[in-house]
Amino acid sequence: MKVMNIIHDSVVDGPGLRTAVFFAGCPHFCKGCHNPASWQIKNGTDMAVEEVLEEITSNPLTNVTLTGGEPFFQAMEVCELAQKIKQLGKNIWVYSGYTFEYLSHSDDRYQRKLLTICDVLVDGPFILAERDLTLKFRGSRNQRIIDLSHIYRKNRELDFY
Q: How many structural domains does the chain have?
């Protein structure tokens, strides 16, 4: 898989201290994106799932955030990684420029599967006109924080924040 960076002890990519994995490749090209270098998959470094997992486990006290770029752009590899992260008992947040509705009905079975593994989805593209620095864990007002564990593990109604 193509990875831009792995940052330990992030406090802006979800609650608590988190290891944030930034993936390369993004089809959204959001105006005002904080990470435009991640748009091109060729800008990432090739890393095997086990290499990324080893980096994550080197910081055992943190949970994990999958971000980008667009993690769902490399859904098959990221899905495999997410499964291994969950086996470690870690909480996983995933950021996507796609909406929950798009991903949950995607023709790509790995995109749908990744939703069922992750605990929380921050969805929707960054929209510069809706930028709001007061929002926690989001960049623009259109983005939602969706409790996927509530949806997929507890079989209850959709819960949007």
A: 1
